[in-house]
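Renewal narrative, Specific Aim 1. Our central claim is that a sequence can be written position by position from structural information alone. The example that follows is taken directly from our test logs and has not been curated for this report. It begins with the structure tokens describing the chain, in the order in which they were read.
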């Protein structure tokens, strides 16, 4: 291995490029690309990632690396060009991009801690001390003080920054740098094995020590945890036995197991002719390297079995397979299918793992202990160095888009990484996105079709119920119509399961005062709060702010808040009243917040210990429950009229997907779809499960209005704590963009700048929001414009205004 005197290092700071650091002699044997290092940056110490070795430092004197934080690379060297591409495309700092890719809790850096001095403690008794100063001195009066970030989160004072400086100059506060340790670390376990010293018959041992030696001799090696379960005093006794040489203690890294119940190995079923054709098409074109495919298969057509066969081929060729699924709830089902086929060759990556579990899974991938990774969007960064195939299930799903920080789309990155790895990529969906369907039409992708369900099971029969005819009906009939109630009763009497779908959680979505008619709004966001009856609170679904259920109206002070609207909690309550003998479960973000709760709910559905399931979009796609024969959609129009050009597409996909949960077993399925717009082409296309009809009606609108897939877009988001300042910054940003655009003749003809306007939700978490939308057929043109805006001095000098760049935005809200 070549030893380089200097290294290119990307630091975990918002810096647009990497930096060169010198390698001290004592670290020359350990520094390799893909490792974390602790480096000085200004007056701080921060985490950096080694990108490559260098022979010289260029035109300046390089600082030295302080320490290497890993014993093996966290990512392979051939993944670094991928990270560079992602950082460049999404206009995000390289070090922050790599930090996003890696498991959380691995950053080490200096954190500024504020601490009360002896002089500050004396000042606490000063009569003229303000309440804010007294609060700061009290919070900071601990051994280590309080971090500046924690202090700013605790105190709500607009002049806090200047006040801290004044108190520091007065000698009341001291600010020191404390090195923050990793939040995630490897788990080490002690293992006991027989020692080299022969037993001394002259030395008598206690019965407990004899028991330990007997167990160790029988097992040859046993973990201390397992030994302690048999001999509770083992930790103390094995130390004494080790001192006598009777046992040997070694410490090794152990992996925390994130998997659920064990699964029985399966026998691969015989493929249908359509499945076999799809698999053979991909395998017969492996010599072409990178080929993107759309696997367009109706719900229940057996797409997962195709994924299993393609992954098996990659593993047989000595390569790896990367499988993305959109929802954490779906990972369990996919993971069980893959574990039944591939056993211990599987790793999983998703946000519901603990930091330690995720670190262990990452370690298993990076060290080559597994061949297949299944995960949510962050799994696209899995540290494989020899990928044979990448699979994206439910490619249309918006969950693949990260909406903060590094705003990447994992589906799009799957195509990019497959191109870099020169391997096929398969995007699967029963309701392909307009973007990918257009790529097929224009010849960029090849399409693999599955027109029939496995065993030729019929698609569900879908009936539309016009809610307008129930406008004057009793409240219960307006939510659960007589047609749906009758269908539920018939389903339950037949011993089958029913899924009732509503993509809105909570009990009441529109609380308002009956005295002054003002809605109950969040203090920090411009949205109405939602009543969560089980928790007895009104909750904001954007920032999490809560008010007690008994709260008075903030506008008039009267306790006259009435609850209008409905969510999954209210549907659950109504169904319990209508069908008291039915076993009922609710699956939404609230009921699955606790770790393991989603898996427990899915298991109860699979084992048929529930009859009625009320769910949001968590249950709408991908799940295979053969006993569900009825799907009821409470309101099919909820998302159709949002101010977003993809609203119709999302509505169609959601309705078609949730309808596809019915009739996947031997009993044909039925869907009751309640709607106020039964004649709308989106609803009608969903009723007929006709992807082509929807695409043909939608695509002319996209073309006429210059929306994707005919243009590329970047959404510029500005936010800050002061309304007028954000508005002025947005106007200034628009002026800069227009000036840059007009200075280039070709841009003047092809680039459209829409806005600035207030965001559809003007305020979130006490930050006011404005946005601009930039469109052009040329991504290069809008990328150049936005990069120039990012670096413009009139923008960078506005310290209180955040500028967010969303490349290829999925939502315009």
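The sequence written for that structure reads:
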């Amino acid at each position: 291995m070549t030893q380089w005197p200097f290294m290119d290092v990307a630091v975990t700071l918002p810096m647009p490029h990497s930096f060169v650091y010198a390698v001290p002699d004592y670290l020359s044997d350990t520094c390799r690309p893909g490792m974390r290092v602790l480096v000085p940056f200004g007056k701080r110490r921060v985490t950096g990632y080694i990108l490559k070795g260098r022979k010289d430092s260029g035109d300046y004197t390089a600082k030295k690396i302080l320490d290497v934080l890993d014993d093996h690379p966290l990512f392979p060297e051939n993944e670094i060009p991928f990270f560079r591409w992602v950082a460049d495309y999404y206009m995000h700092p390289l070090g922050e991009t790599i930090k996003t890719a890696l498991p959380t809790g691995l950053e080490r850096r200096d954190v500024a801690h504020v601490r009360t001095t002896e002089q500050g403690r004396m000042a606490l008794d000063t009569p003229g001390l303000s309440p804010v100063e007294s609060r700061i001195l009290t919070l900071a009066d601990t051994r280590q003080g309080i971090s500046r970030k924690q202090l700013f989160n605790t105190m709500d004072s607009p002049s806090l920054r200047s006040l801290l400086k004044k108190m520091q100059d007065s000698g009341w506060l001291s600010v020191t740098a404390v090195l923050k340790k990793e939040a995630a670390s490897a788990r080490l376990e002690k293992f006991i094995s027989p020692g080299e010293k022969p037993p001394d018959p002259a030395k008598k041992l206690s019965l407990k020590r004899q028991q330990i030696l007997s167990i160790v001799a029988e097992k040859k090696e046993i973990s201390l945890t397992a030994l302690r379960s048999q001999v509770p005093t083992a930790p103390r006794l094995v130390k004494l036995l080790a001192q006598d040489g009777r046992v040997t203690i070694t410490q090794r890294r152990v992996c925390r197991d994130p998997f659920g119940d064990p699964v029985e190995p399966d026998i691969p079923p015989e493929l249908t002719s359509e499945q076999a054709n799809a698999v053979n098409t991909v395998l017969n074109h492996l010599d072409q390297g990178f080929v993107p495919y759309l696997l367009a298969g109706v719900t229940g057509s057996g797409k997962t079995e195709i994924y299993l066969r393609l992954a098996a081929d990659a593993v047989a060729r000595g390569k790896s397979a990367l499988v993305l699924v959109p929802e954490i709830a779906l990972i369990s089902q996919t993971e069980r299918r893959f574990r039944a086929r591939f056993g211990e060759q599987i790793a999983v990556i998703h946000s519901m793992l603990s930091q330690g579990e995720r670190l262990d899974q990452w370690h298993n991938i990076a060290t080559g202990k597994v061949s297949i990774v299944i995960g949510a969007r962050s799994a696209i960064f899995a540290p494989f160095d020899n990928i044979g195939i990448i699979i994206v299930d439910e490619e249309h799903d918006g969950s693949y888009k990260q909406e903060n920080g590094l705003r990447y789309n994992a589906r799009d990155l799957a195509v990019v990484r497959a191109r870099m790895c020169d391997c096929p990529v398969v995007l699967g969906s029963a309701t392909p996105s307009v973007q990918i369907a257009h790529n097929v039409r224009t010849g960029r992708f090849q399409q693999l079709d599955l027109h029939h369900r496995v065993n030729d099971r019929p698609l569900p029969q879908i009936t539309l119920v016009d809610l307008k005819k129930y406008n004057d009906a009793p409240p219960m009939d307006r939510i659960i119509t007589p047609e749906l109630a009758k269908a539920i009763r018939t389903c339950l009497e037949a011993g089958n399961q029913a899924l009732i779908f509503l993509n809105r959680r909570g009990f009441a979505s529109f609380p308002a005062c009956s005295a002054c008619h003002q809605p109950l709004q969040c203090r920090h966001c411009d949205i109405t709060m939602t009543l969560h009856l089980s928790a007895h609170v009104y909750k904001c679904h954007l920032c999490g702010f809560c008010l007690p259920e008994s709260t008075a109206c903030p506008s008039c002070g009267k306790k006259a808040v009435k609850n209008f609207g409905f969510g999954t909690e209210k549907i659950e309550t109504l169904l319990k009243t209508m069908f008291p003998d039915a076993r009922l479960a609710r699956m939404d973000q609230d009921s699955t917040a606790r770790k393991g709760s989603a898996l427990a709910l899915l298991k109860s559905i699979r084992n048929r210990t529930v009859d009625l399931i009320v769910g949001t979009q968590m249950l709408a796609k991908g799940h295979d429950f053969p006993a569900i024969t009825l799907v009821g959609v409470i309101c099919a129009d909820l998302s159709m009229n949002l101010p977003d050009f993809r609203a119709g597409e999302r509505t169609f996909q959601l309705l078609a997907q949730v309808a596809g949960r019915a009739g996947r077993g031997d009993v044909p399925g039925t869907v009751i779809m309640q709607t106020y717009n039964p004649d709308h082409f989106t609803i009608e296309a969903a009723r007929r499960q006709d992807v082509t009809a929807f695409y043909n009606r939608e695509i002319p609108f996209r073309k006429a209005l210059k929306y994707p897939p005919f243009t590329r877009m970047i959404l510029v988001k500005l936010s800050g704590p002061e309304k007028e300042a954000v508005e002025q910054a947005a106007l200034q940003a628009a002026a800069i963009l227009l000036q840059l655009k007009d200075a280039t003749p070709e841009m003047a003809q092809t680039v459209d700048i829409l806005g600035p306007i207030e965001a559809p939700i003007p305020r979130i978490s006490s930050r006011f929001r404005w946005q601009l939308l930039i469109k052009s057929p040329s991504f290069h043109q809008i990328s150049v414009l936005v990069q120039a805006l990012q670096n413009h001095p009139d923008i960078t000098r506005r310290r209180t205004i955040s500028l967010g760049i969303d490349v290829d935005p999925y939502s315009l809200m």
